[in-house]
Amino acid sequence: MAGYVIAEVDVHDAALFEEYRKMVPATIAQYGGRYLVRGGATDSKEGGWTPRRLVMLEFPSADQARRWYHSPEYAPALALRLKAATTRMVIVEGI
C-alpha cells in the first residue's frame, strides 16, 4: 500500500529554501517517490486551516517514505529545510 508524506511548510528564508528545493527531488526519486502536490494555491473550506505551502509526496509504501526521510541522501537537504522553514509533517499509509 502506498505511503504519503504530507507537509505544511512556512518558509522564512527564501534563498535557503531555494537551495533545498534544488536538492530534494533527486532524493525523493531515488526512494521511489514522486510529488503529487508542490506548492500551489489552496482553497480552505473547513476548520480555518490556511497553509502557506502544502507538499504531498507518494511513495510505494509508508516504510519507503520513512527510509527516504531518514536517509543519508536526504540528510543535507533536511538540514537546510530545518533552517529555512517551519514544517508540520506526517507520513500516512494509503489504501
Layout of helices and strands:
Blueprint: E1 3-11, H1 14-30, E2 34-38, E3 54-59, H2 62-69, H3 75-84, E4 85-93
Antiparallel strand pairs: 1-3, 1-4, 2-3
Helix pairs in contact: 1-3
Can I get a quick summary?
It contains three helices and four strands; from the N terminus they run βαββααβ. Helices cover 37% and strands 31% of the residues.
What percent of residues are in strands?
Answer: 25-35%
Q: Measure the end-to-end span.
A: 6 Å
Number of beta-strand segments: 4
Helix content, binned percent: 25-40%
Q: Order of strands across the biggest sheet?
A: 2-3-1-4
List keywords for this structure.
four-stranded antiparallel β-sheet; 37% helix
Description:
This protein is α+β, with helices and mostly antiparallel strands and 95 residues long. 37% of the residues lie in helices and 31% in strands. It has 3 helices and 4 strands. It has helices spanning 14-30, 62-69, 75-84, and strands at residues 3-11, 34-38, 54-59, 85-93. Helix 1 (14-30) runs antiparallel to helix 3 (75-84). The radius of gyration is 13 Å and the shape is globular.
